[in-house]
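Researcher: Here's the sequence for the chain we discussed earlier.
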Amino acid sequence: MYRNHNCGELNIKNVGEQVTIAGWVQKIRNLGAMIFIDLRDQFGITQVVISAENKSIDKTILDNIVTECVISVEGKVVERSNKNPKMLTGEIEIEAGTIKILGKCKNVLPFEINSEKVGEVKEDLRLEYRFLDLRNEKLHNTILLRSEIMKTIRKKMDELGFAEIQTPILANSSPEGARDYLVPSRLHPGEFYALPQAPQQFKQLLMVSGFDKYYQIAPCFRDEDPRADRAPGEFYQLDFEMSFAEQEDVLKILGEIFTTVFKTHTNWEVDETPFRKIPYLEAMEMYGSDKPDLRNPLIIKDVTKAFEKVEFNAFKDKVVKAIVVENGAEQGRKFFDSMTEYATQEVGAKGLAWVKVDKENVLSGGISKFITPEVQKVLENEIGMKENTAVFFMADELKQVQKIAGAIRIELGNRLNLLEQNVYRFCYIVDFPMYELSDEGTIDFNHNPFSMPQGGMEALKTKNPLDILAYQYDVVCNGYEVASGAVRNHDPELMVKAFEIAGYSETEVENRFGALYNAFQYGTPPHAGAAPGLDRMVMLVADSKNIREVIAFPKNKKARDLLMRAPNKVQEKQLKDVHIKVEEEK
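Model: Thanks. This is the structure I predict for it:
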């Protein structure tokens, strides 16, 4: 037996007992007459004391004990003279009788594991030695938190009557909005599997198969560029689907999932259900984003009409948005200049207009000379421009000015510390457009191609595609999209028409989505579902700013696994087996 107690459970009640513990050496303090070792495992730290008078421990063993090596210690539990109330085991220590080295460690570590400066270590070095990085207490506990959240999710889904069913990993290519990861087939030359971007088609087929409620914590694969809130390559989501369900049924389930998970695993304030429901177009108008951070009190206002008769070329024939900042007039010129620099260099704005209103209601700075008393009165009445405020103005075509204003709103909230602290603010974003214009100017799906259009076949036949809304919805928390879902288009005729508008012929639909197209001919119940993102959920609960910190073995910013050295080149024979020939770029 390597141990009969872990390093976090011994206390004053164990004094006098002979125990055996094992773990990693966190710290060594050699005081000559006494040697103190902090021994760590997943459950805590216990102090071990070795007296110079102890002749039962071989000196060569002590000489080989270094930080992060693994040892077992057998000895007697005694009361500490200098108790440490910050430690679970701070009232006791173990007088070592025997020590064994179970796992040697190099004398020099790539970086200090439990140092407060671990965040300053280059991320690629930490990822290369991820097995060491994961020993860091904060990171280690985050991965354990992820495990506990998954247990909570499974328990909740069971309570709600969902059956856990696994779907295939080797699947077919599907237009989910990102590039596929392709897997060549050995048995079928020239043909490829695709790793699923989501279990979308499979979960719909389960509804056709008569399963009432399905879920799984599913791995998904998308060849996307990395960013702070999106892991490259693969991610996990709580995927679920419900038969005979409408939008409100799914939103209710989503609310229960999020409130259960967040209230169970954090002491921050969590919004009660039902969450606030915000239509997509309203979100873009008020917040400049379809994932608004509701902790930020700033609201974007449209002031285009107020400036229609103002001779100011920067606003001429443009959509003009404004953000009013309470007590903003107290900021100095340097603040306004830095915000302008941010707008032009980071957001892509042509400029950032602003004005200050002093305590006597007198305008100054920025574009104050262009604001007539009449316009000032309109702005006072319509957007609340009043004493001691500052107002920021942005002008451009509609979509661009919304994007700019959204970024400025976020930056102002952060720079001025306006965000509510220690709270989770949730909302549903609903009524997404069914279609959008692609970069090439063609009609494309805006969100999920398998969604039900609002208005059904009549809307598809009579409306401008860009005016058609879909029964699609997101859940947003503190500025992050944490779930996405839709009511599914379960009618084969509707499905064909919806894809036809996006440029797909019926033959293409039948070829690319043959399983769904065929299954829908044999009695399909109305169904709907959603997929909360597990990684983002854990990131928010753990109050982490980087999604790689909540994944045990993540890839780096260039989508490389530095620990396992993937992707890597394979042997020529392996390529021949799957009928692949690599052409080197010149």
